[in-house]
Amino acid sequence: MGDTMQRVCFQLQVRPDHIDAYREAHARVWPDMLIALRETGWHNYSIFLREDGLVIGYFETEDLDANLAGMAAREVNARWQSAMADHFEHTDVPADQAFRYIPQVFNLDAQLLAAQL
Question: What are the residues facing 46 on neighbouring strands?
C-alpha cells in the first residue's frame, strides 16, 4: 500500500431482528453497486458482522471525501442505501452517512518501516 493510501475503519449497528437479512444482502451485493464502489476508489473493502449486529467496516482509499462524494452521486447508491435503511438501529440518515469512524492507533508495517526493521 502506497504512502497516499488511508486506512478507514467504521462501525454501525444492525437491528438484532435484521442480522440474517443484512448478511444475505451482503452475500449478493448488486453488480452495479460493486462497480460503483470500485470506480469511486474504495479498495480492500471488507465488512465484518458480529452476532449481536455490530458491523465493522474497513477500506483503503486515496481520498475519503472523494469516495463519499462519488458514491453520493451514484443512483445505485441511493437505491442501496434505501434497501439497507431498515436494517440499522438509531439512524435517521443513510448508513454511509452514519459511519462512526474508528481511529487507527497501530500499524505493524508502518512501525517496522519507521524502525527500519
Answer: 58
